[in-house]
Amino acid sequence: MGSKYDHPFVTIIMPIRNEAAYIERSLSAVLAQDYPADRMEVLVVDGMSDDGTRELVRQIAAGSLPPAISHQLSAIAHHLSASSIIPLALSPPHSRSACAMHREPILLVLSRRQSSRNRGENMMHEIGKEQRVARERSLHNLRFRHPDERSRKVARFYSITRSIHDALRAELAMCIPGTMALEYGCGIGSSNMFRLAQRRCRVLGIDISEVALQQARRRSEGLRGGICFIQMDGEVLGFGDNSFGIIYGAGILHHLDLSQALPEICRVLDPGGFAVFLEPLGHNPFINIYRYFTPQIRTPDEHPLLHEDIRHLSDQFDHVEVRYFYLTAIIAALIKPRGLQSMVLDALESLDARLFRIPGLRRQAWQVLIKLSKPSCRK
Fold first, then answer.
1. pLDDT in tens, 264-310
2. How far apart are CA 361 and CA 327, in angstroms?
3. Separation between Cα atoms, residue 254 and residue 108, nearest integer Å
4. What is the DSSP code string of 41-83?
5. What's the CA gap between 376 and 379, in Å, rounded?
6. Domain residues of the chain, as ranges?
7. Are 370 and 310 in contact (CB under 8 A)?
8. For residue 122, what pLDDT band results from cuts at 50, 70 and 90?
9. Given the DSSP bridges, would you call strands 106-112 and 40-46 parallel, antiparallel or unpaired?
10. Is 115 helix (H, G, I), strand (E, B) or coil?
11. In a 10 Å sphere around its CB, with 0-12 CB exposed, 13-18 middle and 19+ buried, how is residue 23 labelled?
């Protein structure tokens, strides 16, 4: 009997776009044959699908198959896994819209790679991730449809955060005309997007909430400058390597699985660029008590950053700068007269600046501004 290596290794390439209605049957036809499964691979090249095609292919590759797929396909595809997901840095024609230029095609490689144990673990991880992403999307859609209740409850605390937002704006002011900038978790579009566009930077906003993006597009109508919005999971960025000179966000990282999100940020950040994020910390016991009694104003999956999370930033970036904000200054949020509040806030922020020189007290800050540069993930 001949060796299995009598069969040449075969690569099947399937260019697709918006094939959600047919992709399962197409892959079934390709895979349901007697050619040795370990002597072939299927390269599915997705050209910017927006109908769920990409998600279906990932499910098939991971072994999390929808019921519609035949038993025969299941028997063959159990050998297969998503061994790599490679964004292709193609140069689109100038006739494409600005947003289309950033919805990069993606190459999904199906090949025999993993044991059944690893495959099962990955399947459970993918199911857990899908459930988490669905919760986040649903809750943020609800939040953006009905923003008044949450805004009323947190407005007085966020009214004192001018200094950290000023620091974020100062970092973004370094954007030179023509730089490609990504607002990561843009919501309805921050004022920073419009400032960058006015500086003739090209700005792209991504968010998981379609409701937020609808509002963002309405806000940007008639604005001169390069701004566009795309619905996208921040843990799976559909962009080519080195796509952005600046990546920034406010209150976004603590909603994500950092083990998934940070490598993606590192990958799409240009080696000479930087990323900057405004995030909450999770160590202060008094703030955590407030969080415990107000679960309705946050999502169940969010996790204010801990010291360990910040320490792991250096796994992806050679240069990590962290600035701490608001320890005693939070007291100013309880003062109602605006003039008096401003005076107290200035005094307490000066006190905080001294207190943060003590390393142990830095963890008790409410918020941090994190600047990341010199990505090391591709070395």
1. 999 999 999 999 999 999 999 999 999 888 888 778 888 999 999 99
2. 9
3. 28
4. EEEEEE-S--SSHHHHHHHHHHT---TTS-HHHHHHHTTEEEE
5. 6
6. 4-114, 147-375
7. yes
8. very low
9. antiparallel
10. coil
11. buried
How far is 329 from 345, CA to CA, in rounded Å?
6
Please state, in angstroms and as integers, the Cα–Cα distance from residue 265 to each residue in 89, 104, 214, 224, following that order: 16, 15, 24, 28
Q: Are 261 and 234 in contact (CB under 8 A)?
A: yes
Task: Give the residue, 345 or 146, on which the prediction is more confident.
Answer: 345
Backbone φ, ψ for residue 269 (5° rounding): -85, 130
Number of neighbouring beta carbons within 10 Å of residue 67: 5
Cα-flanking dihedrals φ and ψ of residue 109, to 5°?
-105, 120
DSSP 177-246: TT-EEEEET-TT--HHHHHHHHTT-EEEEEES-HHHHHHHHHHHTT--S-EEEEE--TTS--S-TT-EEE
Give DSSP secondary structure letters for 131-183. Answer: HHHHHHHHHHHHHHHS-HHHHHHHHHHHTTTHHHHHHHHHHHTTPPTT-EEEE
Tokens read off for 87: 């964004």
CATH class name, domain 147-375: alpha beta
**Which residue, 195, 211, 163, 191, is CA-closest to 368?**
163
CA–CA separation, 109 and 129 (whole Å): 20
Residue 116 makes CB contacts below 8 A (sequence gap 6+) with 78
